[in-house]
Amino acid sequence: MCNLEGKVAVVTGSTGGIGKDIVKALAGEKIKLVLAGRRQEKLQELKNEFGGKTEILTITCDVTKKDNLKNLISKTSGVFSGIDILINGAGVSSQHPFWNQPIEDIEKMIWTNYYSYVALTRMVVPIMKQNKFGHIINITSGSVMVDPPPRNFIVYTSLKVALRAFAKGLFWEMRDFGIKVTSIFPGVTSTPLTGKLKNISEERLIQPRAVADTVVFALRQPANVCPIELAVINQQTPWTKPVIPFKQEHPQK
Ligand SMILES: NC(=O)c1ccc[n+]([C@@H]2O[C@H](COP(=O)([O-])OP(=O)(O)OC[C@H]3O[C@@H](n4cnc5c(N)ncnc54)[C@H](OP(=O)(O)O)[C@@H]3O)[C@@H](O)[C@H]2O)c1
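Above: query sequence and NAP SMILES. Below: predicted holo structure tokens.
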């Protein structure tokens, strides 16, 4: 088992529903935490709640902005001697039939859910490579296992599919440097993000704790073991049905 105490982890999406449980779980492992998010007051709340368990640095960061990402890494490097773990968890959602999905939503998803993951990884890899140690964990989505991508979620899902492909390729490139890459596919989880979805019943949801436990499982594996992909989904997920009930008349009717 990998000893996690004292390792340094940068976490994006730390202020969200899944992120908060990840922070709690990592603090419990005594991992030093660098928490990124746009809402300073939420970051401070996390520091107040979990700062007694481990060292926590909070950095205000909009992950869609390259200079904010650079600042996150340079400030982290100024305080800690390395970065051992990167948890990419920031994310936004937008449910619409594609034909009337706001372009602004599409841009936001591209920059938050795909660009920030790849760009931050690119910035962190040289540091991990130098230390010959690292673990990059992407919070992807269970929707990548639904083919074709679910209605109303095709941009969100296709970006997650791209992220999955990126991480699989990255695994092969990174393994010789002692860096692990893991994609986690949560099913529909009870968080503010799904609070915006309609018609999701409680029994279809999983709790964020299940995702956080999966992150810790991945991190704890021995040096020669890398869980490349871990799906954590509701046992009752109805794969054959769309995520959101959706009626569409045939145009010729
Ligand atoms: N909930 C689900 O059912 C589900 C299922 C599969 C996958 N996921 C994925 O899990 C991840 C977390 O989702 P969640 O359900 O926990 O969502 P959430 O509760 O809405 O949290 C979203 C997080 O992303 C951060 N974020 C969004 N835009 C950002 C930006 N521009 N810059 C910096 N941080 C930003 C938010 O931080 P601030 O607002 O504080 O900046 C917040 O911490 C996402 O990648 C999501 O796609 C969720």
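The chain has one domain: 8-232.
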